[in-house]
Write a structure and sequence with these properties.
11 helices; globular; 267 residues; 44% helix; Rossmann fold; alpha/beta; four-stranded parallel beta sheet; binds D-glutamic acid
């Protein structure tokens, strides 16, 4: 593991770009290698076996690119494949998921008593948030709701009115009526934060993993002396398993400079 190595980030689609753009702002000296598994989106509706397989191939690809750290920028993959990825990577790179930093925040957020979680079927079925939160805060009620259509809608276009209609009908679910906070348990959802806030009249704390995740990565790389030391700017690389114009356009939402997407076949 070398400090000059890139940071590998992956997701099924554009969700992980929310993490990648935040890393590039917080750590502008670092080089990013991004992989969007657009061929297999959405992960949230796949079996755990398939998700594990996709992740293992992507992780191998990122290790071969000499990544010093791998960020699983997808809740579904974090929920299902974290353990397998840790075993696969061993000491070759640091591995970060997007769930633990949120759980760490909740550990000390004593003002939170009734937390809602929304995410894909895979994330909600894994029960990972409720199990982790409950293991150290028995005073908290966790209400989890699968919102499987959202990631695809956001991938297509989060500004559309039907996205609002479907989002509202999910959030109206009585399971969420008394919550004081809501975990966005999918890296696509930060793109509709304002719509979620609007629904709750800003009365519910929206917990977005990105800030917690990126801070954790920075602190870890710093303490392990793995932040890049030379200031030579290396270009980020963005790979997808299935190139589409739509994905290419979406990258412009996150990065000001033009991104060249490269399609690779790793499966
Ligand atoms: N961005 C992924 C996540 O955080 C979900 C999208 C998908 O289902 O592929 O779970």
């Amino acid at each position: 593991m070398k400090s000059e190595g890139p940071i590998g980030i992956f997701d099924s689609g554009i969700g992980g770009l929310t993490v990648a753009s935040s890393i590039s702002k917080l750590l502008p000296n670092e080089q990013i290698i991004y992989f969007g598994d657009t061929q297999h989106l959405p992960y949230g509706s796949k079996s755990f076996k398939r998700i594990n397989y996709y992740c293992s191939q992507i992780v191998e690809f990122l290790i071969n690119k000499n990544c010093k750290a791998i960020i699983i920028a997808c809740n579904s993959a974090s929920a299902v494949a974290s353990e397998q990825i840790n075993q696969q990577v061993k000491k070759k790179a640091l591995v970060f998921n997007v769930i633990d930093p949120v759980v760490d925040y909740i550990k000390n957020a004593k003002h939170l008593k009734q937390i809602g979680v929304i995410g894909t079927n895979a994330t909600i079925d894994s029960n990972v948030y409720a199990a982790k939160i409950k293991s150290f805060r028995s005073d908290i009620k966790v209400s989890s709701l699968a919102t499987p259509l959202l990631a695809n809608l956001i991938e297509e276009d989060n500004q559309k009115l039907y996205t609002k209609g479907i989002l509202d009908s999910y959030l109206k679910n009585q399971i969420l009526t008394k919550i004081d906070s809501l975990i966005l348990g999918c890296t696509h959802y930060p793109l509709i934060t304002s719509r979620i806030n609007e629904f709750f009249n800003s009365q519910v704390e929206i917990i977005n993993s990105i800030e917690y995740v990126t801070n954790k990565i920075k602190n870890n790389l710093q303490s392990k002396k793995l932040l890049k030391t030379n200031s030579e700017k290396l270009k980020h690389h963005f790979y997808v398993s299935d190139y589409t114009e739509n994905f290419q356009k979406k990258t412009e939402l996150f990065f000001s400079s033009k991104i060249i997407l490269e399609e690779v076949n790793i499966f």
